[in-house]
Structure formats: C-alpha cells, structure tokens
Hints:
This protein starts with a strand and ends with a strand. The model has no long low-confidence stretch (mean pLDDT 93). The chain has one domain (2-57, 77-104, 121-127). The chain is mainly beta and 128 residues long. It has one helix and ten strands, in the order E-E-E-E-E-E-E-H-E-E-E. One of its GO terms (biological process) is defense response to other organism.
Amino acid sequence: MKAVNPNAGIGLDYLENEVSISYSGTIISVGQFQPFLQKEKEITNFNVTLKGDSDFDPTMQNKLLLDQNLGNIPLLIMVKVPVRIVIDEIIHLRKVVVDVNCSLVIDQLKQNKKPNILKKDFSYDIHI
C-alpha cells in the first residue's frame, strides 16, 4: 500500500486498522498494517499481510473460475483506519476514522504470480 501526506507542518498518525479483500460480497482475506506516524510531505510504501480461509459454495467457485478464465476478476479492498492529525510533531488533534474502498479488476489469482491491475477506482469517507 501507499500513503501520501502532501501537507506542510502536519503529520498523520495511523492507528490500529483493518484491511480486507472481498470477492462477490464474500470477504476472502483480512489483515492490518503496523501503526505509524507519517511526517509532513512524506510518501510511505508498506506491505500488508492478508490471510484468509473462505468456504465458497460450488456456485461461487464456478463464478471465480469463469472470471479467472476470462482474465477479469473483480475485487474490493476495504481499509478502515483511525487517523490523528499531528501538528509540528507535538500537538495531537482529535482522531477521525477514514474508510477507503478500492474496487479493482485483476487478470488472475494464481499462487506465486503477481496479478495485473486492469481497472481501479477509489472512494473514501471520513467519520468524526
């Protein structure tokens, strides 16, 4: 994942969080990233380990196989992270919760093979 903080004089303190991926409305894996303080005007790249064990019924398995054969697998990545704004690395303001959804279409889900992203669309919401 990648987090961008374009602000001058403002840091972002990412707290305990949840990351999940779903396929056709079924969550297939979950995880989280290590909480961290992102300094002003900083770009942070980090890995998120996702684990899951989903029992797909035969209909869902067939749908996934069809999507795999077509090279067109729709996924939804959901991130829920409380963030605290930090001014001059001293003043910690009120926490807000940021929900980020990323709809992806990838070409494959195969072990030890990186999928290609064919389409992506982001949306977000902030809760106080």
